[in-house]
Design a protein that fits this description.
The protein is mainly beta. The chain has 2 helices and 7 strands; from the N terminus they run H-E-E-E-E-E-E-H-E. It is globular and about 40 Å long.
């Protein structure tokens, strides 16, 4: 699977059935070269369109399933939401 394929999939949190958004970046472990986390832009601040000052950092082990259209994760939203 290519990075461009991952960026087209929506990420859904199964604990509250909320769509978190689409993948914007990946975090790699420098020693092993493996993907360690997904980065998703946080919620927009102004009318849900303009600007965002946070992002979701979701560890790879929190992924439940990668499907054809969606990536299911099991996280507590307040634990993975980080301010920029």
């Amino acid at each position: 699977m290519r990075f461009s394929d991952l960026t087209k999939k929506e990420v859904v949190n199964i604990s509250d059935c909320k769509c978190l958004g689409c993948i914007s970046d990946l975090v790699f472990d420098q020693c092993s070269g493996h993907i360690s986390a997904l980065v998703i832009r946080g919620p927009a601040k102004w009318f849900h369109y303009i600007g965002c000052d946070s992002e979701y950092i979701i560890c790879w082990d929190k992924i439940v399933r990668i499907g054809p259209d969606v990536i299911l994760v099991d996280v507590c939203e307040k634990d993975v939401l980080k301010k920029l």
